[in-house]
Design goal:
Shape: elongated
CATH superfamily of the largest domain: SPOUT methyltransferase, trefoil knot domain
CATH class of the largest domain: Alpha Beta
Strand content: 15-25%
Helix content: 25-40%
Structural class: alpha/beta
Number of strands: 10
Oligomer: single chain
Distance between the termini: 44 Å
Mean pLDDT: 93
Radius of gyration: 19 Å
Number of domains: 2
Amino acid sequence: MRIIYGINPVSEALKSHPEYFKDILIARGKGDQASERIKKLAEQHGIKCRFVEKSEIERLAQTSHHQGVIGIVEEFTYAGLEDILDRWRSSGENALILILDCIQDPQNLGSLIRTGNAAGVHGVIIPKDRAAEITPAVVKASAGAIEHMLISRVTNIADTILRLKEAGLWIIGIEAGCQQDIYSFDMNTDLAIVIGSEGKGIRRLVKEKCDVCLSIPMKGGISSLNASVAGGIVLFEALRKRKGF
């Protein structure tokens, strides 16, 4: 079993996968509209909500940022790479896949999943080692977007890139200092975008597998951006070019 907490994560999970729920706990005395909506939504699916002390919510969530609501659900199920490719092929769209090379901050991972969902990403790929996995903090940071995103956890990112190339995707690495920038590159094709870890960026072996390396132009005195911010800029530049905004 796993814990999810927060109004949006619990609401989105109830809408998408009510069958995953084992229990919903609401802090006693919490009677706002948001918690009432969760209670009604749960009742529609035959799930009873239990009212408990706030201290019990905090103990289970292991954080004070729970908004008075937690859900106890089945363990998160990662998708296979083929599941992501199937979603892309059935969409009739150009592929847009996000590869996160050793993102370690749960907030960054959750934010990138949320942004990816908003930008129409077909799936997110993360490595099994030296990287954040799906935890309650990641679910909360994604604001529930994790319930709508296919996430594949792979043993080897470099090998996975080769599989994506075989499927016809062009692999773009995003790194500061690259000569070509994201605004001069045609993104209206089948793409997988690689975002590197906080601090170290894309690992050498992964970078070598990329077809092209692109940078985000910056004017200030800081030479790099937060990983989730960089990912958002690139994903929405891809969306802009595809939609002709």
